[in-house]
Amino acid sequence: MAAPRVERTLEVGPLELLCGGKLERVEQFVSLEGELRDGGANAVLVPHALTGSAQVRDWWDGLAGPGKLLDPSEACIIGINVLGGCYGSTGPASPAPDGKPYGSRWPLVTVRDMVEAQYRALRALGVRRLAAVVGGSLGGMQALEWALDHPEMVEHAIPIGAYDHFSAFGIAYNRVALEAIRLDGNFRNGDYYDGAAPMRGLKLARKIAMITYKSDELFTQRFERRPDRKGENPFRSLGERFDVEGYLDEQGDRLTSRFDANTYIALSRAMDLFETRDRKVKDTRPKLTFVGISSDILFLPQYVRAASERMRERGFDSQYLELVSDHGHDAFLADTGDLARLLRPHVPAFLTATAP
């Protein structure tokens, strides 16, 4: 019998933000799949990455689902749309106290703010423990933040393709991508909800990001210097594309059909602001498993390993694993079979299906 998926929108009250400012009314959209037992003894929180959602299996079905590493017949899989998101939780498109969308008035939100809102939502649901928090990229930042801010609640945090801060390289790429959105004539300083959205800017931002999510090896294998598969020939005219250009255009089009530009800006900036190296460590220290990706240029694997070592020096039971893949940063989404095999020995048996 399939485990039911329950979706709820929870109001978690006003929230004072780390960088100043206050959100008067915060909602969190939560998805739970599987039966919650013993206040969360079998609960796995799966925070999503930049453009993900609370519906974990919609974007990580290679890792979560019947017979997968996280099996809803054993684990209660919990997803929460992040604060600042556009899939149900309070974000820039949500009504401010005056009834109009926040838009340009949306404040700075940090990963720490996101986790605080999630914590309140889980407490409201009666979740008192988390057997694991596992996520990639921005989701990995949240996993680590959970281990630092609410260690008494977390047994095991698994940051994948993430470490204890965000690099200058990542901030630089984000700056260029976000500038693309802001230069779109439809952006209107973020107050575009009564008119056309800045689709061209968002598409360009996504294309810039996709270059950092992949690797030279993958692009060479998949595209080389071939003309676009839809019949264009870059040797015929300036406007025709190589195959890799067609791929980037397609990825941009896919995102603009489902995502909000202000959310893209807000969550990207939250990544830029992420820094935990100077954080005071609490007495309780959950187990940590950092996963680096061999071909990741955005979150270099040596940086992930170094973060694991720093956390071990601070008294955590911290280990480093490496996913070997040519998919770059996106490997945590693209190579889920290999990722599941890598993680299986480190995930409690009571959360997972029997290994194939």
Question: Distance between termini?
Answer: 20 Å
Strands ordered across the widest β-sheet = 1-2-4-3-5-6-7-8
Q: Averaged pLDDT, please? A: 96
Examine the coordinates and then state which fold CATH places here, giving the name of the CATH topology of the largest domain.
Rossmann fold
What gross morphology would you assign?
A: globular
Number of domains: 2
CATH superfamily of the largest domain: Alpha/Beta hydrolase fold, catalytic domain
Proportion in helices: 25-40%
**Beta-strand content bin:** 15-25%
CATH architecture of the largest domain: 3-Layer(aba) Sandwich
- Give Rg in angstroms: 20 Å
Give the number of helices: 11
Could you explain how this protein is built, in words?
The chain has 356 residues and is of the alpha/beta class. It folds into two domains: 5-166 and 281-351, Alpha/Beta hydrolase fold, catalytic domain (Rossmann fold); 170-270, Rna Polymerase Sigma Factor, Chain: A (Orthogonal Bundle). 33% of the residues lie in helices and 15% in strands. It is built from eleven helices and eight strands. The protein has an eight-stranded mixed beta sheet, with helices on both faces. Helix 2 packs across helix 3 and helix 4 (168-182) packs antiparallel against helix 5 (199-213). The model has no long low-confidence stretch (mean pLDDT 96).
